[in-house]
Design goal:
- It contains 26 helices and 16 strands.
- With 583 residues, it is an alpha+beta fold.
- It folds into five domains: 96 residues, Zinc finger, CHC2-typedomain (DNA Primase, Chain A), CATH 3.90.580.10; 125 residues, Alpha-Beta Complex (DNA primase DNAg catalytic core, N-terminal domain), CATH 3.90.980; 122 residues, Dna Topoisomerase Vi A Subunit, Chain: A, domain 2 (3-Layer(aba) Sandwich), CATH 3.40.1360.10; 70 residues, no CATH class; 143 residues.
- Strand 7 and strand 8 form a beta hairpin.
- Helix 1 packs antiparallel against helix 23 and helix 25 runs antiparallel to helix 26.
- The relative contact order is 0.06.
Length: 583
């Protein structure tokens, strides 16, 4: 897999000013040494993203997103890290040739290769004599050869044909079990069914959906189990194809089912993705949020679909994502609607969406007799709660509309709305105060690591005073820092982040950086953090010695352990004395 040489990445990073690049995407205001702006990676209502010219880093103090200039561009443009390097290099006249994929896929390369081979096996089955009936079914559904090829649609055969095929390719049974291609109690894909591959955001096959097409066979659908590479809450079906189309269309269409997304795509609405469940997860919301375009919700035409529209729309609204809604009439879902009514009818629906507020006003009326006072009061209270996030003009128009429609004074509705907003603010307070604080130990470890990433003198302090962390994760991060420093003989955090792009600990390193709020480096404070870790290490040693003494029947061994405990206790007391003096 192609990769830009580390030296070239560092050269491009050094030639660019992160402030200038981020200004192309976000309005920045200088404040002290740094610049501040609205964070584009979450629903930010006040400037919480800091950009440091000195460190060439950005950091959001609300959502903890952090990194160098390449990280920012890769996240906001939905491109790989190497593509971001290439894009920025072209801006500053340091040109890089080639196509670059996301290097993070190498971590599970074996699994991706196995899933890709399985997908091609299924696809080949469909083109054989055994796939005649399946092809006829797909043709009847309007999924002809071109679309079958685009989506990699395949066919699973009966019995153990997949297992036998993969066994001949020398794949281990455990690997097949881990990826859900077979099960302990039998084969996973052993029935005749049409197979639809599921891809991640990089376009790698990570799972499958099977659809039984012969009558009187059940279940109708068969979905992959979750595995180390397939977490359905982390992806949206067809996202890797649809995201660029959505940017062109300046809108993403979100539907419920995979077949709905395929039908929409086949009908020319290529900016369509499907949920992998009824409720959007925070990871899926983030995939939509960072596109920075409106999302059009078009869920099934039933009560469950209306509820899913309400719930998911509310989640997206809270995340600051603009929302529109289409509610189809007649057929249950987009797939059936297009088959029966045609592409033009679907286009007409898409041309006349509802605002999410308008949908809510309709949804909240369902199953209510608004001539009944109790029902009317409940409806109006729910509407007022829904208005709390709207702008003043929308609120004013809606209140006037409600006042005329139900013959209620505008001032009465306005006062009730003000009470709802105040009540909402009061509800927020306990949630903030209940937020868990990090333990002093964890806080100390993360600060030590952060200090080490910023200046070699803190690396030397760590080596002289600690040398290791007892936890494997923190030890691994420290080792990455030490390896980088030994190789380059200097420590620049913005360049270190280029290096860790290949590391399996990349996400954990970014979490450490994003979690540091007090960004000032101070040797005295570093000393305090080191003392806290040393104290914890000595306490652990004393506990282990006590456990050994309790388990031992050897008098001499107990005596030696007792002397060791005394020695460590003295060291511990020295550390505590040092801390108390500082305090």
């Amino acid at each position: 897999m192609a990769r830009i040489p580390q030296e070239k990445i560092d050269e491009i990073r050094a030639a660019v000013n992160i402030v200038d690049i981020i200004k192309d995407y976000v309005d920045l205001t200088p404040h002290g040494k740094n610049y501040f702006g609205i964070c584009p990676f979450h629903a930010d209502h006040s400037p919480s993203m800091s950009v440091s010219f000195e460190k060439q880093l950005f950091k959001c103090f609300s959502c903890n997103m952090a990194g160098n200039v390449f990280k920012f561009v890769s996240e906001i443009e939905n491109i790989s890290y190497m593509e971001a390097v290439q894009k920025i290099g072209n801006k500053v006249g340091i040109f890089v040739e080639g196509q670059f994929q996301n290097t993070s896929t190498t971590e599970h390369q074996k699994e991706y290769d196995l899933m890709d081979l399985t997908s091609r096996y299924f696809e080949n089955n469909l083109s054989t004599d055994k796939g005649v009936l399946a092809r006829e079914y797909l043709d009847q559904r309007g999924l002809h050869e071109e679309m079958r090829s685009t989506f990699g649609i395949g066919l699973a055969l009966e019995n153990n044909s997949l297992y036998e095929f993969l066994k001949k390719k020398k794949f281990k049974e455990n690997d097949l079990l881990e990826l859900g291609l077979i099960r302990q109690n039998g084969l996973e894909y052993q029935d005749v069914c049409i197979i639809f591959p599921i891809h991640n955001a990089d376009g790698r096959v990570i799972g499958f959906t099977g659809r039984v097409y012969e009558k009187d066979r059940s279940p109708k659908y068969l979905n992959s189990q979750e595995t180390k590479i397939f977490k359905k809450g982390m992806i949206l079906f067809n996202y890797h194809r649809a995201r660029n189309e959505a940017k062109k269309a300046k809108k993403m269409i979100l539907v419920e089912g995979n077949m709905d997304a395929i039908r929409m795509y086949a009908s020319g609405f290529k900016n369509t993705v499907a949920t992998m469940g009824t409720a959007l997860t925070k990871e899926q919301i983030y995939l939509l949020q960072k596109l920075r375009i409106p999302i059009l919700l078009m869920f099934d035409n039933d009560d469950a679909g209306a509820m899913a529209t309400m719930n998911n729309g509310s989640l997206l609204e809270e995340a600051g994502v603009p929302i529109e809604v289409v509610r189809l009439s007649g057929e249950k879902d987009p797939d059936e609607y297009i088959l029966k009514n045609g592409v033009e009818a679907m286009q007409d629906n898409l041309n006349h969406p509802l605002s999410f507020l308008e949908f809510k006003l309709q949804f909240l009326k369902q199953n209510k007799n608004l001539k009944d006072t109790e029902n009317l009061v409940e409806y109006l209270q729910n509407v007022l709660k829904s208005l709390k996030q709207e702008d003043r003009l929308t609120i004013d128009i809606t209140l006037n509309r409600l006042a005329k429609e139900y013959d209620i004074p505008y001032e009465t509705l306005k006062k009730e709305l003000d009470d709802v907003v105040v009540e909402k603010k009061e509800e927020i307070v306990p949630k903030v105060t209940e937020k868990k604080r990090k333990s002093s130990y964890k806080k100390s470890v993360e600060h030590i690591l952060y200090y080490m990433m910023n200046d070699e003198k803190y690396i030397k302090m760590y080596q002289n005073r600690l040398g290791y962390f007892k936890e494997e994760l923190y030890r691994g991060i420290a080792n990455e820092i030490l390896y980088y420093y030994e190789k380059h003989k200097h420590m620049v955090l913005a360049d270190f982040l280029n290096y860790v792009e290949e590391s399996p600990l990349k996400n954990e390193i970014y979490e450490v950086i994003g979690g540091i709020v007090d960004d000032v480096l101070d040797e005295t404070i570093m000393e305090d953090y080191l003392l806290i870790i040393q104290e914890a290490n000595y306490l652990d040693k004393i506990k282990k010695i006590k456990d050994q003494m309790k388990a031992s029947n050897d008098v001499h061994e107990k005596e030696m352990l007792g002397l060791e405990q005394v020695e460590i206790t003295q060291k511990l007391q020295e550390i505590r004395n040092g801390r108390s003096v500082k305090e």
